[in-house]
Amino acid sequence: MLRTTLVLGALALAGSGFAAALLSAPVAAQKAPDARALGVRLTGDPGPHNAITDVAGVEVGHSTIIEGSGALVVGRGPVRTGVTAILPRGREAGDSVFAAWFSLNGNGEMTGTTWIEHSGILETPVLITNTHSVGVVRDAVIAWQKERDPTFLWALRVVAETYDGSLNDINGFHVRAEHAFEALDGARGGPVEQGAVGGGTGMRCHGFKGGIGSASRQVGEYTVGVLVQCNQGARRDLRVAGAPVGELMPEPSACYADRSVPAEVRWSGVPWCEGPDANDGRLEPLPEGAGSIIIVLATDAPLLPTQIKRLVTRTSLGLARIGGMGYNGSGDIFIGFTTANRRAAAERGERVGLEMLPSDEIHGFIAASVHATEEAILNAMLAAETMTGINGYTVPALPHDRLRDIMRRYNGATQGR
């Protein structure tokens, strides 16, 4: 279920700018992204949904908040934010899972990771939201579990964030407990809604509209699934299946759609969406490449926490393949878990046996972690639509037709080598 009062329709290209259309209608579910249909050559075999939910038992839910338009009024909007929840064993099973986490660049937040580092166990759902809503979401998860389990005593909840303040009234604190409840209660298996939804509603990725993306890879009888909240990357660094897409597609870029917004609250260097005259914004420009990414990895393979850590760290290579550099301003924080060894991960009082794959047998899982991460980030951009947020600031969608043309030319060039 999506909470919305105003939705912004896609902005059509008009030369180097956009023509904006505001639609008073509910948000339509995003189509499942299909990079292969655009000629993108990706490595590995995805599961039936090409999503983290291909790992049996994993459920994902979103709460999306899109309200208002025009000039920013702190506390009133415009609002472009939300919450995404990942439940390792689903809503009806709260058993622990073996887990590990990793920080490529720590300019961000993921709560609860100190205990995961020491215990190798994740005992909670994983939630993702905006930077200034981590606290309220963390408290809400505790209240949610307390309501469902009368014997509940304490928990170290895992809540991660990326910054959506370029599109969203982030200091208005619009995420409330009920939004976390909605994401948790609405979590399901099957296809995962992607793009500008849930915690990814107000995010941008490599200068295009970003948000939530997911992908999976099959490794023999097992599956590796990845979900990302993508809000990172410079346009110039973007690569898709090896092609330098960011260099070949410097436009469309972010722009301002509302000329009534005063220069004092507009960033310099950002053009108007329509018209040749330059924007006279007086704010210091956003540093290119600033932003963050949260990566959540799941598998059903019987791995120990130390082995999961190896997969989680390798997601950095998938991030690098698409152009993520881990710049200073980027909070690149990753977590992974396995649904295998259910009793061993949950037992507190008895000695139990467990299964594990030998480390010499995890090469395929390492490769799957890399390739699923790369595609999940791409899917976040492919599923997202152009969005206008505070002060008319507009972030464009990645144009599918232009990406298809680039891939056609690039694939032809590489075939001729």
Polypeptide structure, described:
There is one protein chain. With 417 residues, this protein is an alpha+beta fold. The chain has eight helices and 20 strands. Helices cover 23% and strands 25% of the residues. The radius of gyration is 21 Å and the shape is globular.
Spatial arrangement of strands, main beta sheet: 9-8-18-17-15-14
Instruction: Indicate the structural class.
Output: alpha+beta
The N- and C-terminal alpha carbons lie at a distance of 49 Å
Helix count equals 8
Shape: globular
Mean pLDDT: 90
Q: Output the helix-strand order.
A: EEEEEEEEHEEHEHEEEEHEEHEHHEEH
Features of this protein?
single chain, 417 residues, alpha+beta, six-stranded mixed beta sheet, five-stranded mixed beta sheet, 8 helices, 20 strands
Short summary:
With 417 residues, this protein is an alpha+beta fold.
Topology of this structure?
Blueprint: E1 3-4, E2 7-8, E3 12-14, E4 17-19, E5 22-23, E6 59-67, E7 79-87, E8 97-106, H1 113-119, E9 121-122, E10 126-130, H2 134-148, E11 158-162, H3 177-185, E12 204-205, E13 208-209, E14 211-219, E15 222-233, H4 245-248, E16 255-256, E17 289-299, H5 305-321, E18 330-338, H6 342-346, H7 363-383, E19 387-388, E20 393-395, H8 400-415
Parallel strand pairs: 1-6, 10-11, 17-18
Antiparallel strand pairs: 2-5, 3-4, 6-7, 7-10, 8-9, 8-18, 12-13, 14-15, 15-17, 16-20, 19-20
Helix pairs in contact: 2-3, 5-7
